[in-house]
TrEMBL record:
<feature type="domain" description="Periplasmic binding protein">
    <location>
        <begin position="34"/>
        <end position="303"/>
    </location>
</feature>
<keyword id="KW-0732">Signal</keyword>
<dbReference type="InterPro" id="IPR025997">
    <property type="entry name" value="SBP_2_dom"/>
</dbReference>
<keyword id="KW-0175">Coiled coil</keyword>
<dbReference type="InterPro" id="IPR028082">
    <property type="entry name" value="Peripla_BP_I"/>
</dbReference>
<feature type="signal peptide">
    <location>
        <begin position="1"/>
        <end position="19"/>
    </location>
</feature>
<feature type="coiled-coil region">
    <location>
        <begin position="51"/>
        <end position="78"/>
    </location>
</feature>
<dbReference type="Pfam" id="PF13407">
    <property type="entry name" value="Peripla_BP_4"/>
</dbReference>
<comment type="similarity">
    <text>Belongs to the bacterial solute-binding protein 2 family.</text>
</comment>
<dbReference type="GO" id="GO:0030313">
    <property type="term" value="C:cell envelope"/>
</dbReference>
<protein>
    <recommendedName>
        <fullName>Periplasmic binding protein domain-containing protein</fullName>
    </recommendedName>
</protein>
<dbReference type="GO" id="GO:0030246">
    <property type="term" value="F:carbohydrate binding"/>
</dbReference>
Length: 376
């Protein structure tokens, strides 16, 4: 009788163990939530693809994205982050694009709530923040594109295709983004480095059009009257470059004939302009960076820390011209994003992966063969 009772208890215990395992398994399948803070909105020419590509990665990695849109007002950051933290299902982590103080604000609020933050695409400019994990334990890392190199490569390409003015100089006009942006600062440094290497190039003026196509359009209308022999227009974004093209067309100027122009972003509109010959080049690929940062956050939350590979990660941009546009175009097609297996970039899903690889070329290899190999 005692033996039967013990046997019955053992069977009940086993049933309970299996039941609890099932509950735990279902709990672990629940998607983790990541808040994504951007300085503009998902309708923006650049941030639209950023959000779309990120959401494709999140779906593939069984994660949810809560979009926090600053809409050109970095002062709204605190309210957005606080609301997210006070919700019924607060984020398990944040990825934040820092503009002015928005990144640092996010780090401070998340630190109080003990929620990890990954800074992406825009650097924290305040020295008080320190390096990742230096002063704030939950400021886990930073992933930034090589802004200076993008500005430099774009400038070199354009200057090489510019025509000398009557004084023998290649006259350059430059349109930069907003003040307080690490992207603006870095891209301008790259432009100025290229100018030092090309003594035949002469920077006539650099202006801040604040990333706004309409502002760039209006500014170019005035500047081209002052500098009519301009043959190179360098723009820190595709949007501003396209604004310049509108103003040029209104004056009867044709890019590729009267001047050369290029931008940065790899926007769909930029790609179309490069293919048509309206833009001579666009540097980019960094629209994928938020998705790459998500892979690191995914692994970190699963207990696989990326600290041994560095807490400050630099990614490269690629210069897209008419000569290589067909090779990279599949990466800009939203239809292809759902076909990418982002888990192949993760060490959690690939324990044998020795080093993370985040680059345009890596993602190109992840595309379906008929797309990724098209017209190479």
């Amino acid at each position: 009788m005692i033996t039967q009772a013990v046997s019955l208890c053992a069977r009940i215990a086993l049933v309970l163990v299996f039941a609890m395992n099932g509950i735990c398994s279902r709990a672990s399948d629940k998607p983790q939530k990541v808040g994504f803070l951007i300085p503009r909105t998902s309708q923006d020419m650049f941030y639209g693809p950023v959000v779309g590509f990120l959401q494709a990665a999140a779906k593939n990695l069984n994660m949810d994205i809560e979009l926090l849109e600053n809409d050109n007002n970095h002062l709204s950051t605190a309210g957005l982050v606080e609301d997210a933290l006070q919700g019924d299902h607060r984020p398990d982590a944040f990825i934040a694009v820092s503009v002015k103080e928005s990144g640092f604000t996010t780090v401070k609020l998340a630190e109080q709530a003990k929620v990890p933050v990954m800074i992406e695409n825009g650097a924290i400019l305040s020295p008080v923040a320190g390096a990742p994990r230096e002063h704030f334990a939950y400021y886990i890392g930073e992933m930034l594109p090589s802004e200076e190199m993008a500005g430099y490569e774009l400038a070199k390409y354009l200057i090489a295709h510019g025509k000398p003015a009557r004084n023998g100089k290649i006259q350059v006009l430059a349109f930069n983004g907003a003040f307080g942006s690490s992207a603006s600062d870095g891209r301008e440094k790259g432009l100025r480095r290229a100018l030092l290497e090309f003594p035949q190039a002469e920077l006539k003026q650099i202006v801040s059009a604040r990333w706004e196509p309409e502002t760039a359009q209006a500014m170019f209308t005035g500047l081209i009257k002052r500098y009519p022999e301009t043959s190179v227009v360098w723009s820190a974004s595709d949007g501003m470059a396209l604004g310049v093209l509108k103003a040029a067309k209104a004056r009867g100027l044709v890019s590729g004939r009267d001047f050369v122009i290029g931008g940065i972003d790899w926007s769909a509109e930029g790609l179309a302009a490069v293919r048509s010959g309206a833009l001579q080049a666009t540097a980019g690929g960094h629209f994928m960076e938020a998705a790459w940062a998500l892979v690191l956050v995914h692994d970190y939350l699963a207990g696989v820390d990326f600290k041994n590979e560095g807490l400050r990660i630099k990614t490269d941009m690629t210069l897209l011209t008419k000569a290589n546009a067909d090779r990279y175009a599949p990466l800009l097609d939203p239809v292809n994003w759902a076909k990418i297996d982002f888990s192949r970039l993760s060490k959690v899903h690939n324990p044998r992966l020795k080093k993370y690889s985040f680059s345009v070329e890596t993602v190109l290899k992840l595309l379906p063969q008929e797309q990724g190999s098209a017209k190479r």
